[in-house]
Amino acid sequence: MTADETLETLESTAPVVQTPRLAIVLGNIGRALILAGIVTFLFVGFQLWGTDIHESRAQDDLRTNLDERFDAAANLLDSLPVDPTPTVEPTPTSSDAVDTDVAQMPPSSSTLPGGHDPDVLALIFPEDGDAFAHLEIPAIEVDKIIVRGVAVADLRKGPGHYAQTPLPGNSGNASIAGHRTTYGSPFNRIDELMPGDEITVTSVQGEFTYRVMDPLVAYSDRLEQIDAVGDGHIIVHPGAGWVLENFGDDRLTLTACHPKLSSRQRIIVAAELVTEVVALPEWVIEAQAERENKTLIIADETQPSTEDSTEAATDQSGIDTGLDPDVIEAPPSRAADLDEGLKGERGAIPGATMWMLAGLTFWYAGGWVGRSKANGRASRLALRLVGLAPAILCLWFSFEMIDRALPAG
């Protein structure tokens, strides 16, 4: 018997040593912890770089869109009359047939005051998430496109204008929110602003310059509601929505989370308008109000009686509509919420969990197939890589939804 044959005989007759169950359990726990560490590391990378890529691409699209809006505004708004003669609609008579099965729609170009093109409203009041204005703050190197709205999805594109506050350059307190970390971090250095620093906002109405105010002057009658005061900013509780209210002057308010990487408080900067105030034509204000407060004609036979409908209309809107009792007016626009868009979307957690589990399933499935079906190391590695590609894709979607669920930092 040769030496090789002797060695094979000894190996075949050697007793098989069973791996202790505790060792198996500890090994699996160790591998799970390593995988969790890798996923956490990848999520941190997504927060630091992936979100900036997302915001940069969105800003490129927004700049193109805003340029197009400016070009369109040059043609439409230059000839905009200040106070056109409103179109008088004929009063319906009792003999007029009314189709109560159709909901009342927003005004068309033929019913806007003065018969104006509704595209004018779309230029001045874009849809949420669309390009709204250009923001420049040289002192902290900010050059961003502002979007309309401050929902989570809006602020992922750039700073957002609180739609419930006045337009920049108009009378009142125009307010803008932005991230301090992730998604381009437009307000990362907002705490460095000093009284006198200039802020420029350019919209379809023109270019407007603001100067940062001394916070002790800007909020002189609210000092007891402020947590801390800096050189050019204040720190308040997330529920301090009063910073978005009208203070009787013409200002711009910038809001962001504080401290960085936390949403425990809010940092606020107020800047006074130093250029001439502009105003929208009366018909534009009326048409926008009508567009935002649509009415709905109720014709279902199961609806309450006329008397009950009248009470319902008053109760839901808080205002006596003065319309037919079958017409319920939508409630006025809600007040601006300082915490909107910065507190995260808890509804994204289930989706994030599902995508994470899907990614882990692909990863482990590739490993299991490789161990059970492949004969060589190269084949096992190839099968593991086949599972890696969809796993990474699922993780990306999971990271996107986790980020949506987390409060802004």
Textual characterization of the structure:
The chain is of the alpha+beta class and 409 residues long. It has three domains: 57-87 and 99-273, Sortase, Chain: A, CATH 2.40.260.10; 294-329, no CATH class; 345-409. Helix content is 39%, strand content 15%. The chain contains nine helices and twelve strands. The strands form two sheets. Strands 1-2-3-4-9-10-6-5 form an eight-stranded mixed barrel. A two-stranded antiparallel sheet has the order 11-12. α2 (21-76) crosses α9 and α8 (349-373) runs antiparallel to α9 (377-405). Residues 82-115 and 295-333 have low confidence and may be disordered.
* CATH class descriptor name of the largest domain: Mainly Beta
Report the C-alpha radius of gyration, rounded: 30 Å
Which spans have pLDDT < 50 for at least 5 consecutive residues?
Answer: 82-115, 295-333
Order of the strands making up the biggest sheet: 1-2-3-4-9-10-6-5
State the domain count: 3
Number of strands: 12
Helix coverage percent: 25-40%
CATH superfamily label of the largest domain: Sortase
Instruction: Quote the beta fraction.
Output: 15-25%
Write the layout of secondary structure elements.
Blueprint: H1 3-13, H2 21-76, H3 119-124, E1 131-137, E2 142-148, H4 152-155, E3 160-161, E4 173-177, E5 198-203, E6 206-212, H5 215-218, E7 228-229, E8 234-236, E9 251-258, E10 265-273, H6 282-292, E11 295-297, H7 306-317, E12 327-329, H8 349-373, H9 377-405
Parallel strand pairs: 2-3, 4-9
Antiparallel strand pairs: 1-2, 1-5, 3-4, 5-6, 6-10, 7-8, 8-10, 9-10, 11-12
